[in-house]
Design a protein that fits this description.
Elements (H helix, E strand, L loop, with lengths): L1 H8 L5 H21 L2 H21 L3 H24 L3 H8 L2 H6 L8 H22 L2 H21 L4 H15 L11
Helix pairs in contact: 1-2, 2-3, 3-4, 4-5, 4-7, 5-7, 7-8, 7-9, 8-9
């Protein structure tokens, strides 16, 4: 509560202001995701999207605009996951398959290459799972194979990063679901 009160005092156009307003929502979202509370996770995604959109309307400096745009896209992964976990895989695919194009439209910043790639990888993993659930194994496999390569590159840069390792494990597990177990060499 004290952190939220501190964040509320910061000017909306200030990068520290919108970041401070987003932080408790991000933490709450991670908890809700762990608890599998999908309706509440979707609510948090809506609130975070509003924080990032407000930051973009207030036009903080260009560097922070780039970051707010990437994070706003990343929050959509939570919404897609909520759809997926509540039996709405087709709706998740429709949402998630637009996100790589949106990420590509955001200017690149060399300071946040890892953040940007982490969002791309999260989008790809969740999209791959949603495609699996809709029965589109060929597309799921392509998306997930590309994501495995990307996640392996991230681990090569930061081998001790547990989040990268967990992401790779999740992506590989999903990729295995696209393979034909009768074809031992392939699987």
């Amino acid at each position: 509560d004290r952190y939220r009160a501190y964040g509320a005092k910061l000017p909306p156009a200030d990068a520290a202001g919108w970041a401070a307003r987003a932080e408790p929502l991000l933490r709450e979202g991670f908890v809700l995701r762990s608890l599998h509370d999908w309706p509440e996770l979707e609510r948090i995604a809506d609130q975070l999207t509003a924080v990032y959109e407000e930051a973009l309307r207030q036009a903080p400096n260009d560097v922070w605009i780039i970051q707010a745009r990437v994070y706003r896209i990343g929050v959509q992964v939570w919404r897609g996951e909520a759809y997926l976990r509540t039996g709405q895989a087709a709706r998740a695919v429709a949402l998630l398959e637009r996100l790589p194009e949106q990420i590509a439209a955001v200017s690149q910043n060399p300071n946040w290459v890892e953040d940007r790639q982490a969002v791309v990888d999260d989008v790809s993993t969740t999209l791959g799972e949603a495609l699996l659930e809709t029965g589109d194994l060929a597309r799921a496999r392509t998306v997930l194979e590309n994501c495995v390569r990307s996640r392996e590159t991230a681990i090569a840069r930061q081998s001790a990063n547990w989040g990268y390792q967990a992401g790779l494990a999740e992506t590989c597990t999903l990729l295995a679901r696209t393979l034909d177990p009768a074809k031992f060499d392939e699987a």
